[in-house]
Amino acid sequence: MEPVLTVSAPAIVWFREDLRLADNPALAAAVSTGRPLVLLYIHDEVSSGFRPRGGASKWWLGKSLAAHIHQIEAAGGCLTIRSGETAKVISDVIAETGGVSVFWNRRYGGPERAMDTELKTNLKRGSIEVSTFNGRLLTEPWEITTGSGTPYKVFTPYWKAMRSTYQAPSLLPMPKSFTGPEVASESLESLGLQPVAPDWSGGLDSEWSPGESGATERLWNFLEGPINTYSDDRNRPDKEAGTSRLSPHLHFGEISPVQIWRAVQTGISAGKFDESNAMTYLSEVVWREFSYVQLYYNPDLATENYNSDFDLMPWRSDSDALQAWKEGRTGYPIVDAGMRQLWHTGYMHNRVRMIVASFLTKHLLLPWQVGEDWFWDTLVDADPAANAASWQWTAGSGADAAPYFRVFNPITQGQKFDPNGIYVRRWCPELCGLPDKILHTPWEADSATLKKAEITLGTTYPKPIVDHPTARQRALDAYDRLKEKRNAA
User: What is d(CA 290, CA 144) in angstroms, rounded to the nearest whole number?
Assistant: First the structure.
């Protein structure tokens, strides 16, 4: 294809994990050049070293791109979609448009950084200007360090350092209009991101509104009230509005942590928000940052133990138990409710994520990697940093991790955080007829109670696949063997 001649050679804005127009550093910088813009998205499933997206993540990406296209077209522009090897696609687009510069926001996974570094070097050799920005995090992973200049390995001092030093940059406005050359584009539908035969996404469609406007609406709904009770309500899966549920929007860059920080701090300064609750919320945003620090310095975070001592952990292999966990039929209601919520909506409440992760790694003594992999496939917010770091935290192998001997009791966790059984009854409706006092321990119900509730244990609802005290002791024994192996090494 012959290059398109324009009065001014265009700049290429390469969208990746930043599917928004407002507060987008790469986009704003490109707009400031005054050049016509080529807005580009590359769907690369052929370059080596990249982890394929899970099904739920693909669903969200398709919906998010559709929303992004709509916003760009409303401003008079168009999003060019290409699939294939990234380096070739960019080379082709430069040749077709006469582009002289490329703008993008940085990525932090190992393969992504390697690709971007090589691409930047090769483009500059070809006299193409490359400008890169932080559009994904509050600070770069290398910017906040300990007094000795090393990355933090404990969250609390990292959070304190962030809280005391970080100042959000000024708001970057959304471009009002776009001009640029016409460029051949593939259709969004050709990427095959939406599930077919069967289409299992009905629950996701009813739960989520992917896209920048959906992210903004969700943030403002949270700031209108729920933020002021966040410290307590964030642990209550029975209170759907207790958390912001912005994680998938953050993952796809439909909103940035800078936008969230700025909005929350503005509300604190105006006296609109309870400061303690608001800062607890921001600490969770910074936990995501801490996860990216871990990923940056440990590119294999999703597969390798952060703490290498856990390489000696005597994990079990039990395909039947793993499948029961995935399908939400462990016999422990809070665990089963969480796993069913995940399958139906692509999401799970954070407190329940910890419970089900502890159950897998400690009650079932299965390696955390198989749980991380399942979450990767089924979560709409599957994130290479937060998913892996959180699994390692629960398993005991991660940075500043929960001690391995801390075994979440799924019974008392359910009773404490879902005291009226609202969450369990929603996702395990076969248990609806049980009274609250026995809801989290249906195996303790007498025959009359079970009959009245129309429950037959082992048929309409499973019996527990492990006994809690026995499984807890097995986990502690395994940890003792790990310590013995470590000391003998």
Answer: 10
* Segment 25-29 long-range contacts (CB within 8 Å, at least 24 positions apart): 25/105, 25/133, 25/134, 25/135, 25/172, 26/103, 26/104, 26/105, 26/131, 26/132, 26/133, 26/135, 27/103, 27/175, 28/172, 28/173, 28/175, 29/103, 29/131, 29/133
Residue 32, judged by CB atoms within 10 A of its CB (0-12, 13-18, 19+), counts as: exposed
- 249 and 215 Cβ atoms separated by less than 8 Å: yes
81 touches 35 (CB < 8 A): no
Distance in angstroms (rounded) separating the CA atoms of residues 103 and 12 = 6
Q: Provide φ and ψ at 153, rounded to 5°.
A: -115, -5
Q: What is the DSSP letter of 227?
A: G
The interaxial angle of helices 55-74 and 212-223, nearest 10 deg, is: 100
Would you say residue 6 lies in a domain?
no
Say which residue the tokens 């139906």 belong to: 344
User: What is the residue range of 443's domain?
Assistant: 308-488
Whether residue 303 is contained in a domain is answered as no
Taking the C-alpha atoms of residue 477 and residue 479, their distance in angstroms, rounded to an integer, is: 5
Last residue within a domain, chosen from 111, 135, 159: 135
Q: What is the CATH number of the domain that holds 219?
A: 1.25.40.80
Instruction: Please identify, among 83, 109, 135, the residue that sits at the C-terminal boundary of a domain.
Output: 135
If you count them, how many residues does the chain have?
A: 489
Q: For residue 129, list its beta bridge partners.
A: 101
The model carries a pTM of 0.96
Residue 1 confidence (pLDDT):
40
Tokens of 95: 């040749």
Confidence of residue 402 (pLDDT cuts 50, 70, 90): confident
Residues 311-365 pLDDT 10s: 999 999 999 999 999 999 999 999 999 999 999 999 999 999 999 999 999 999 9
Within 98-151, residue ranges assigned H as helices are 110-125
Q: Say how far apart CA 34 and CA 11 lie, in whole Å.
A: 9
3-state secondary structure of 223: helix
Asked if residue 2 has pLDDT above 80, the reply is no
User: How far apart are the C-alpha atoms of 340 and 353, rounded to whole Å?
Assistant: 12
Closest residue by Cα to residue 422 from 226, 235, 237: 237
Same domain, 371 and 381: yes
CATH label of the domain that carries residue 362: 1.10.579.10
CATH code for the domain of 116: 3.40.50.620
Q: What are the backbone angles phi and psi of residue 307, rounded to the nearest 5°?
A: -95, 105
Which of 472-486 are b and which e, b meaning 16 or more Cβ less than 10 Å from the residue's Cβ?
A: bebbeebbeebeeee
Residues marked active site are found at 284, 287, 315, 350, 368, 391
At residue 197, the pLDDT reads 82
